[in-house]
Amino acid sequence: MSLSTSPKLIKGGLVILPPGGTGAPTRTIALQYNPDSLARSYQVQGTGGDGGGERAQPFRLKGPAVETLRLEAEIDATDRLEFPAQHADTVEHGIAPQLAALESLVHPSTGDLQALDALAASGVLEIVPAEAPLVLFVWGRNRISPVRVTELSITEEAFDAALNPLRAKVSLSLRVLSTDDLGFRHRGGALFLNHLRARESLAAKSAASTLSTLGLTSLGE
User: Fold this and answer.
1) Which of 37, 94, 144, 218 can pair with 164 through a Cys bridge, CB separation 3.0 to 4.6 Å?
2) Is residue 177 one of the residues assigned to a domain?
3) How many domains, in total, are found in the chain?
4) 215 in a domain, yes or no?
5) In this protein, which residues make up the domain named Contractile injection system tube protein N-terminal (predicted)?
6) Cβ(148)–Cβ(130) under 8 Å?
7) pLDDT given for residue 83 in this prediction
8) What percentage of the chain has pLDDT greater than the value 90?
9) Is 173 exposed, middle or buried (0-12, 13-18, 19+ CB in 10 A)?
10) What is the residue range of 45's domain?
């Protein structure tokens, strides 16, 4: 039994917006259970690339670091199957709908594929693929960032009599899209700047240390 004074559990997840980021969300995917860990890595964008420019100008950054997120989530039908009258879809399909929603993030829609085929059949020489929806990774109100799903791995672990999946582990790799990818006018670019501002604000709250903390009295000038 939950008490009225108990804090409400906030779930992480993904919000899907129309291409271009305009309009209301078309789908929200909440993680059934928050992962125990969230791995983040950064690739620094220095100047010069591999041509020696970074050695000549070591203090210059040409853009935001490329941030990659990795997480593992679990999806389980057990709780819903305890109340079959309220969850008829789970009884019929297991967790297949939730898995299909995640899979839709890495495939073009059938409508987009058929439109591309129609253009090719009509003799169009240069065909530009349709723009994908804008995906936002949400990890609390202070961490909202535009992302692209770069890898999705699903391990189905239990099945019902009709072979519908009942339990699965999902591994997600996400690349945070910055203003370098989206520009400053795109809604995703604006959301990235908000994400960066939030990190800068948190950094400003970090307690400052002194040289003595590091066992130094001076830097030896």
Assistant:
1) 94
2) yes
3) 1
4) no
5) 26-176
6) no
7) 93
8) 66
9) middle
10) 13-192
